[in-house]
Amino acid sequence: MTTATEAPASSGAPPSPGAAERRHARAQYLGAFAVLAVLTVVEVGVALIPGIPKGARVSGLVLIAVSKASLIALVFMHLRYETRVLRWTVFGPLLAPAVYGLVLISDATWRFLR
């Protein structure tokens, strides 16, 4: 199906200027989908394989989840093309819980060893 601004493919006219960008975007989205599918399979494997210690399992699952969320933000939310400052405003708050957790762990360790 063609729009009013595109010439039919059979007319011999060159493709519209946006055709290459659409093909590139489609390939990028399909690549991201493939990576997400592989990460999901790995995630299920980590969750179901017996013998993995609980701490390693939880750490692995959290790492995979953060990787998937970052990929979705970069590709589907188009943060890949934004400025570094805007990316930090999105990804920066993800560091706050990690820092808070480290502070709580160090405080609990200090109180326990005192």
Care to describe what's here?
With 114 residues, this protein is mostly helical. It has two domains: 21-81; 83-114. 72% of the residues lie in helices and 0% in strands. The protein contains three helices and no strands. It has helices spanning 19-48, 54-75, 84-113. The longest helix has 30 residues, at 19-48. It starts with 18 loop residues before the first helix and ends with a helix.
Keywords:
114 residues; mainly alpha; 2 domains; 3 helices; 72% helix; 0% strand; flat
Question: Summary?
Answer:
The protein has helices at residues 19-48, 54-75, 84-113. With 114 residues, it is an all-alpha fold.
Helix content: over 70%
Number of domains: 2
Task: List the uncertain runs.
Answer: none
According to DSSP, the number of beta strands is 0
- Beta-strand fraction estimate: under 5%
Mean model confidence by pLDDT: 81
Summarize the topology:
Elements: H1 19-48, H2 54-75, H3 84-113
Helix pairs in contact: 1-2
